[in-house]
Design goal:
Length: about 625
């Protein structure tokens, strides 16, 4: 699993392709992406900069995506600082690639129209409810992400312009049907072969390894014998769940809580309104006059919905006659809310209202009065809420006292554990590559292998593992990193050298057989002397064969020419193989229904390669500086 994650996150252009998803940045809080030039730069790409803030947001977003997808497996990788550095560099490379693509798109004169931007936003599932664009959700999501509508449109314009070029690159490659058919036939091709498996062990009977051989190997490969530092942790872990079971709440206490906090069980009044928005644009005074003119048309009996479609700058709500759906206090701009909630009756029209978005004319279309849930309906919720609040209060009291004691009595965790009436747990010795699951949290691992805890033998500060979940740790035992002495690894090296020399001896003997096979000489007596026989197998496939992978790989590189129809191969288990091609069997024709699918797959592979090479070419020609 870990290796698959490494490959997926470090594939040079896998991340670049994923980076084309727009909202992956927006929801990480990238509202300042457009105006970040004044921030500390992480890199400079020609005349544009990528800020440290942009890099950090992209890094945290990508890390969060990986943690969500792979969970603890990815968390284990992040304990490796070298991997995290490489991961972060991959994110920066992607941002540089995006910036280069954006600059290239501008140089080519690519543009995106307002209509295209509108169509893209309406189609985004993040802004949809029940499969349809929802203006209330749209404005709420933008507000949460720190965008105003015009800023988001500008951001979309940059991103969509860049994607015009990337999509053109990815769509420029194609595969002919004939190529797909040929590729399929090659993939489905099988081969008849005969092969020998030559055990290396018998060739080792007469091999010796001298002390000089061992010393030379040790010195040449000394880093192989470095051990990793290891620690055993003593730790105390506390979560709010440990405290909930001991908390009791009476009915009287629950009823009193309900009365004192009845506003929590009361749904706010909601209002539904339509509006006509006139944005400030470049002339606020002119916008105010336009809004007043539209209000006069409304007051003169004009159809509000039709006027919204004709004049409103909020093109999304305008399609629905200006309808903004239901909203409550705190969801809209304060000036807008004051005006909307100041209208007394359904159908009332406001005066012109100025907000940060522009000038509004508001029509109240419906009202939902506030409602209070009866105590009987929410009793269980009240009980659970009180228990949680009490547990949280107890948790924070204990956390504060535990932190104080961990500092005041740094030589042990016993007193820290006593405060919460829990036991001190201890792990086995482990390295950074083999962290036990119970303590496999990035911050815990970082503390465990810190100089402070190892050298000073003190308790850690409180480590927050999550909401209402903490841990204190100390190093209970420690093994320093070291290089094993020669006498500790002599037996290991001896076995390794014996195996290597035995395999080499077997390979030398196999090479004599190969020469005989190519000259069509009889080798049966030589094989008999070693107790070896030819193994014959027909229709060996490229994948899924019972034959050793090294032999299969070599087999599909051979030709029918007698000078190149056999090969000696080293097997993974230390033995040696000799394989001879006997016959090539044509692969089956691809089913006609699968041709298009394979064409698409091959085209995609080529397109990704082309995309990567294009970015590489841009980078070679660009002035890129990484700080």
């Amino acid at each position: 699993m870990l290796e698959r994650i490494r490959e997926g996150t470090q594939g040079k252009w896998a991340m670049a392709i994923l980076g084309l998803v727009i909202l992956s940045f927006m929801f990480a809080g990238v509202g300042s992406y457009i105006n970040s030039s004044a921030e500390t730069a992480a890199a400079k790409v020609n005349d544009d900069t990528i800020s440290q803030a942009d890099l950090e947001r992209a890094y945290q977003n990508e890390r969060g995506r990986m943690e969500s997808q792979y969970g603890d497996a990815f968390a284990a990788l992040t304990a490796d600082s070298a991997y995290l550095q490489q991961f972060r560099q991959g994110v920066l490379d992607r941002l540089i690639g995006d910036k280069l693509l954006e600059q290239a798109a501008i140089d080519l004169g690519l543009r995106v129209s307002d209509a295209q931007i509108k169509q893209a936003i309406v189609a985004m599932p993040e802004f949809q409810f029940d499969g349809k664009f929802d203006n209330e959700r749209y404005t709420a999501v933008l507000r949460q992400a720190g965008f105003q509508p015009n800023e988001f449109r500008d951001y979309m314009r940059v991103d969509m312009t860049r994607r015009q070029l990337s999509n053109a690159l990815l769509g420029s490659e194609f595969t002919l049907a004939a190529e797909s058919k040929q590729a399929y036939k090659l993939q489905e091709q099988t081969r008849d072969a005969r092969y020998l498996t030559i055990p290396a062990q018998p060739f080792g009977d007469e091999i010796t390894v001298s002390p000089e051989d061992i010393e030379n190997y040790y010195q040449a490969n000394i880093t192989q014998f470095d051990t990793q530092q290891k620690v055993s942790l003593a730790y105390v872990e506390l979560s709010i769940d440990d405290l909930l079971s001991d908390i009791v709440v009476s009915d009287d206490e629950a009823e009193q809580y309900y009365e004192q906090n009845i506003q929590d069980f009361r749904t706010q009044e909601e209002r539904r309104a339509s509006h006509i928005l006139v944005e400030f644009a470049d002339d606020e005074q002119k916008a105010a006059e336009s809004a007043q003119d539209i209000l006069e048309k409304v007051n003169d009996g004009g159809d509000f919905a039709e006027l919204a479609k004709e004049y409103s700058s909020d093109t999304f709500s305008a399609e629905n006659g200006g309808d903004l759906d239901w909203f409550s206090l705190g969801m809209m701009d304060p000036a807008f809310e004051d005006a909307a909630f100041g209208l007394a009756n359904v159908g009332d029209i406001s005066a012109v209202v100025k907000s940060e978005f522009g000038f509004h004319i508001i029509k109240l279309t419906d009202i939902k009065p506030e409602q209070t849930s009866p105590y009987a309906d929410v009793k269980e919720d009240v009980l659970a809420k009180i228990k949680t609040e009490k547990a949280e209060e107890d948790f924070y009291t204990k956390q504060q006292r535990m932190a104080e004691v961990a500092f005041e009595a740094p030589d042990s965790l016993d007193e820290v554990a006593g405060i919460a009436d829990i036991d001190v747990q201890t792990t086995v010795l482990f390295s950074q590559d083999s962290v036990p699951q119970d303590v496999n949290y990035p911050d815990v691992v970082a503390q465990a292998f810190s100089d402070e805890l190892i050298n000073d033998q003190v308790n850690s500060d409180v480590i927050e593992l999550g909401d209402n979940h903490i841990m204190f740790v100390r190093v209970a035992d420690y093994e320093a990193q070291r290089t094993k002495a020669l006498d500790e690894v002599t037996a290991q090296i001896t076995d390794l050298l014996l195996a290597e020399k035995a395999q080499q001896a077997a390979k030398t003997w196999a090479d004599t057989l190969l020469a005989d096979v190519r000259s069509e000489q009889d080798i049966s007596e030589k094989l008999k002397s070693k107790g070896i026989e030819w193994q014959e197998q027909d229709a060996i496939a490229r994948n899924g064969s019972s034959v050793a992978p090294s032999i299969v790989e070599a087999l599909f590189k051979l030709t029918s020419n007698k000078e190149a129809n056999a090969q000696v191969v080293e097997l993974f288990n230390g033995d040696v193989g000799l394989v001879q091609l006997m016959k090539v069997n044509e692969g089956a024709d691809i089913p006609s229904s699968d041709v298009a699918t394979l064409q698409n797959r091959l085209s995609t592979m080529r397109a990704q390669f082309t995309y990567g090479e294009f970015i590489n070419a841009l980078r070679d020609q660009a002035d890129v500086e990484i700080y």
